[in-house]
Known about the structure:
The chain is α/β, with parallel strands linked by helices. It has 2 domains: about 1-130, Cobalamin-binding domain (Rossmann fold, 3-Layer(aba) Sandwich); about 155-440, Aldolase class I (TIM Barrel, Alpha-Beta Barrel). The chain contains 17 helices and 14 strands. Helix 5 (about 115-125) links the parallel strand 5 (about 105-110) and strand 6 (about 130). Helix 7 runs parallel beside helix 8 (about 215-225), helix 12 packs parallel to helix 14 (about 375-390) and helix 14 runs antiparallel to helix 16 (about 410-435). The relative contact order is 0.10. The structure holds cobalamin and iron/sulfur cluster (SF4).
Amino acid sequence: MKVTLISPEFPFxxxxxxxxxxxxYLGALTLRxxxxxxxxxxxxxxxxxxxxxxxxxxxxxxxxxxxAPWVYRFADACRARGLRVVLGGIHASALPDEAALHADAVVxxxxxxxxxxxLRDAASGRLRARYDGVRLPLAGLxxxxxxxxxxxxxxxxxxxxxxxxxxxxxxxxxxxFGDDVRYRPVDExxxxxxxxxxxxxxxxxxxxxxxDPDRAVALFDAIAAGRRRSWYGFGDLRSVQGxxxxxxxxxxxxxxxxxxxxxWETDSAATLAGFRAEGKQGKDRVEAVKRIQGEGxxxxxxxxxxxxxxxxxxxxxxxxxxxxxRVGIHPxxxxxxxxxxxxxxxxPYLVPGLGWEAFTGVRAVFEHPxxxxxxxxxxxxxxxxxxxxxxxxxxVDRLRAIPRAGFxxxxxxxxxxxxxxxxxxxKARAEWQATHAAAAAEPPPPRA
Length: 448
Ligand code: B12
Ligand code: SF4
């Protein structure tokens, strides 16, 4: 059987410099289930790809919320050609009935327990409308294949666990993977990283430190024992506080960690508590940022802006935060994604008529109690903030703040990550300006 797996086009991003992990992993899972399958793997962010280019009889697409409209159009066109389409991933799992309107089968949840059955049923012409994956232990996962995709890639990804002990109300992954953390065996992760090509890695765990310091140190030591790698990933700020944190951080550094992306979210204690995102911050998160930086590791903070609980002044404070801590900031406009508690809370206020392609994090998708903070104003504030944050002088200042311990690797790799983000967010800004000509022509909001 011929199977085409597609990582769909994301609305504004342009070329994402990372090989889509789902292609390498689901490809491996496919070949483990049926080594005879002929695979076609497609990253639609790097290549222009149309339904006519599909070679498979079975087409699998991975759906995130913002990519859902692209996927549904693509799936409809494939089905019109007589191909069978399977949809899976985080959005298809949150809204399976919606996905089912565009698919022959929907896989809800994790693929490991369901994909073999899907392939067998497709081969025998007995595909069911829905397959429910269960959460299995993570030992013995297949090693992602080297997809050998053509494209401008700088990063590849590895994963060592699923699930998260925290409870943030805006989070999709926690519901998807569960509240308990499941770990892959350390030796399997280390062997996988060692066996695969590439020297710069993204650790796609929701929290690179995990919930067990001994396991974290064992993992980092095992990676450090192999060839020299550089890697970055998402980590909370709480885990690096206290003596255990120092031990974990030093081991991570030895294994090649050069950048930590942490969810700062907001500086308003009330909003943080409302989002139940205070648990992951610990007692002194500024100290945690400094401790990470002190090891020669870059810090990038995710901040969430424009929430109904926040005022417009939060945009300016975010800029001040970047300058004060000399950190990178990845700002997103608060986005209630389906399947989250935030979605249920904000549902009555969603701007009518917006499709899922607006749920990117750069659009204001709900009304605010303060009429001055209407969606257009929040988007304008957002784009102004991004422009300030990604000024060349700020990027250089931030790189200069990284201690010599990180030179030159951390500096160079941080720059490599900042440039595509600047380009992608610049593209989002240009698209916004094109559709909001009047607002874009007004003088920028005053900055202190
Ligand atoms: C890797 C990653 C990225 C990479 C993408 C690289 C790439 N080229 O694909 C980068 C860092 C660029 C990125 C960026 C963003 N990301 Co991201 N990212 C992830 C992350 C950490 C891992 C996803 C992944 O690849 N996992 C590995 C694969 C193998 O597993 P999986 O996707 O979980 O799939 C499993 C099942 O879902 C299922 N499955 C999935 N697809 C399919 C398809 C079929 C056919 C089948 C049968 C099964 C199946 O099988 C798999 C195994 O069980 C997730 C968080 C997470 N833990 O999931 C967020 C996540 C996917 N990202 C998210 C978001 C919002 C973004 C951004 C929009 C953030 C922003 N505002 O800037 C940007 C978008 C930029 C862009 N242009 O894509 C959200 C999506 C939420 C949603 N509901 O849509 C997530 C879930 C994070 C979150 N906290 O909510 N991201
Ligand atoms: S810490 Fe991250 S993964 Fe965990 S619940 Fe919060 S946002 Fe989700």
